[in-house]
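Exercise 7. Given the components listed, write out the predicted structure of the assembled complex. Treat all entries as one system.
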Amino acid sequence: MVKYVLKRLASSVVTLAIVITIVFVLLRQMPIEGYFDNFEKLNEAQINAKLANLGLTQPIPVQLKNFFANLLRGDLGTSSRYSAGTSIASIIAQKAPLSACMGLMSMAISLAMGIPLGAAMARSKSGFWDKFGTVFIVFINAVPAAVYYIFIQMYGTSWMGISMLFDRNNYVTWILPVFSMSLGSTASYAMWIRRYMLDEMNKDYVRLARAKGVSSQQIMMRHVFRNAFVPMIQYIPASILYTISGSIYIESLYSVPGMGGLLVDVIGRQDNPMVQALVMIYSAIGIIGLLLGDLLMGVTDPRISFVKKEGAR
Amino acid sequence: MKGLFDAKKRGLEASVTAAVKGDLPPVNEDELFVVADYDAAAAEKTGYSNYSYWRSTLNAFLHNRAAVTMLIVLALLLSFTIIQPFLPGQYGANTINNNPITGIQLQNQSPSLTTVYATVPDGTQLIGQRLDENWYAVSNVLTTIKAREKITVVEYGETWCRIEYGVLTGYVKNNFQTKLKLPDDPTATPYESRSSFPLALYQEPEDYTNAGEALYARAESIAEGENGAVTTLGETQLRTIPSDKAFLFGTNNIGQDLWARVWSGTRTSLWIGFVVGLFEALIGIMIGIIWGYVRALDRIITEIYNVLDNIPNTIILILISYIMRPGIGTLIFAMSLTRWLGMARFIRNQIVIIRDRDYNLASRCLGTSTGRIMMRNLLPYLVSVIMLRMALAIPGAIGSEVFITYIGLGLSVDTPSLGNLINEGRKLITSASLRYQLIFPAIVLSIITISFYIIGNAFADAADPKNHL
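Answer.
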């Protein structure tokens, strides 16, 4: 098992390098107009001077070599256009904790609400909880997030009598953004838990357990829920890690100075060093998340094995 | 019931007695060991049952009333979006509608079912001007009195005052908008008065204008008099625009018909959703199964997934729209390029869970080929989850189109889609009177999503054979 993990980690490093190289090359294909605010007004000499200043006139392999050399020294570089001259590490260090904090809170809420809701829905098939949950899930899935977020903000802030904008030190202003953020995942956790539990409840071993006289409480918790949770657990580590990327809608609605939308923003402004740094961080998170998810899946369900078995293909 | 039981019991007793007494007919032992010939009918008896998986699934699905209703709703919606442009009296989705007199765009007209503003009786005196062969622009405003000009009130009323202005006699409104300067006892007429605001001088104490703008009447119901005076022939409908075609969903901020735009947008978005959803399902399921089942490929595909999944979609979208001509095709291409990844990972996780179950192990021991195990052992097992996931793929694709528009990489407003309509409407949410521009596209999107969700869930339930009985 350890060998398997080490192998996966080693190949992850290679993957990471490939991702960065691809993104690096793709970024160099972007239109050069994007690097300027007033492209039409500049003459060729000025354009070339700016491009040289950004280090874009060198051949791509040379640029790539310099980038990796700096990276190995632990230097992420400085932002070129988003906040020119500021070191990227400091920008991220300032923004990421806030997003992660909000994201973790909303994730805790959605796990705490979504899983019991889904379980209750599965148990009371076509009873009250099932109907209530279905309405909730249908509503959340049907109305675009961009729309119900605005309504929550408009009515929520006026009902609570607080300002529309987020203030880090005023804890009341945390409630609405965190709550809005949790709604989507609450619905999706509830939906999938219900689906998996229903699939599981129809299986023969549950029937046998019932015939043996195991209490329905125990069947649900010990057998059905445990098996139903396995397919979801793969996503949990990645979701936890991805909380640092923030939510683009929520953060722009409440003016939260977090990471949400930062990547889209810097891609739009063609701030290459920032894009590369963010892509690298998010990729690392994604890769580690997938690995942790696989491991967790193997821990919860011992029948799952990633190591080659006899007779396996 | 009891009689039947007794009869059987008696029959059994009789045969036992006969056997014990040795009364049974003698059996030739050789007869018992003759090889039986192949008998097709006898083989059918045990081998054939009229159970068909898909027919039972369909039956179970049809028992779910809510799902069948939503299926009908969805079918109606789909067919309506297709036939809508061919219906009579539709505006173009990109036509900018102007006021024919002032040439100003008919901005932010509220939704209404009809263009009729008022119906006037036969012989009503109006001021009119011929617009074209079919329409007259009419109103009953004689003239506009400038602010602070002197007028003489001859008859005072709570809502209308009869006044004289130069040689003209007519009525002005008496409300907070006109704010006539009145003496202590306003009923003691006549007296001079004025207003700080411009006044419209009406022919009668009725307002036949659309908030100050001319109304329109059909030419055949108008008789022209002198100096622009016209008379109505028969009961006449005065309309807000020179057309019978109402803006059912209102107009947007440049005077485009929202009804036409919403249906055109639904068409675009459903098309995007179907194509992207189909690609997502096909490629995602195929790659997902191979990724999950074939251990030798697991590492490689995992790494490829990691590479592709971590290249930000935004970069791909920007680059594709930079290389290719922006439009529906480009958007579909860009979305298909990235969205199958999630499906593949989902299927892979499912496969990993069941690939080493005993029944698969047994199949492998019996030498079943990998392809057959995938198609016969793994896929049918996952039909219910795959169905739910696929049902969500189409609304999911539409939803991500909304997001792509939100970050400014979506279709341009010349190609209406639910994404850009909702995004345009979203900007107007703070003004309650314009909120309809968000609500109509959002309702259509919601209907589509709800239908797919309910149908998908019902189908997923129906696809599980355990629910077939």
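Discussion: The longest strand of chain B covers residues 125-130. Chain B has two domains: 116-239, 258-467.
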